[in-house]
Amino acid sequence: MTPWFLIIAGVSASGKTTLASYLADRFGRNGLEVTQIAMDAYYRDYSHMSFAERADINFDHPDSFDDSALHRDIESLRRGESLTLPEYDYCDHRPRASKVATRAGALIILEGILPLHFVSLRELADFRVFVDTPLEECYRRRLQRDIEHRGRTEASVKRQFEEHVLPMYQRFIAPQKYQADTILADGGEQPALFEEIRQRSPLCTC
Questions:
Q1: Residue 45: which of 65, 67, 30 has the closest Cα?
Q2: Can you list the alpha helix ranges (DSSP code H) found in the chain?
Q3: Residue 19 in contact with residue 112, Cβ under 8 Å?
Q4: Which of 36, 38, 141, 151 has CB 3.0 to 4.6 Å from 13, enough for a Cys bridge?
């Protein structure tokens, strides 16, 4: 059977990865193999640019993603093929040399800031979720994450949030709500979403 394809969209630090991991764990505990894909892994390769130039790229704009490669890999996984998927280095702002061997699970979860922006991706999806978390909370989480794990300064995080994240949120990210099957507030609705997916999917009979 064709794997069931779930998309989770939302602004950076809204809780998408946490939600995807929660669902993967819940279904995994019931014997369902789950493939998780981060859209961030499909940022375009800007290795030809200097580090300073790469650091100034607007990574919240749709043009920063190689959506064709992502679409191709999703289609391959839905055919049951095994792949080596890219990884992204957030500190160096470019793809890593290493790749991750991945095989198609019965459930494929794609999470990222803009997956529902691309018609080719959202038309493949069996179910589409938008995680709607207050921007103030997203900024607080992003500040902590980027300083602790991505080598950023508070000033650089603040500038990027104000100059890139907020404008792109209004222009591209927030409108994805209208392409979603359900809008999920951050936090306690994870069990409810699990139940909804379990009931909707013919694969998820756990």
A1: 65
A2: 16-28, 51-55, 67-78, 119-122, 135-149, 154-160, 166-168, 190-200
A3: no
A4: 141
Q: How far apart are CA 166 and CA 28, in angstroms?
A: 35
Provide the token pair at 112: 């990222």
pLDDT tens sequence for the chain (206 residues): 789 999 999 999 999 999 999 999 999 998 899 999 999 999 999 999 999 999 899 999 999 999 999 999 999 999 999 999 999 988 888 889 888 999 999 999 999 999 999 999 999 999 999 999 999 999 999 999 999 988 899 999 999 999 999 999 999 999 999 999 999 987 557 888 888 888 888 765 55
> From CA 69, how far away is CA 42, in angstroms rounded?
7
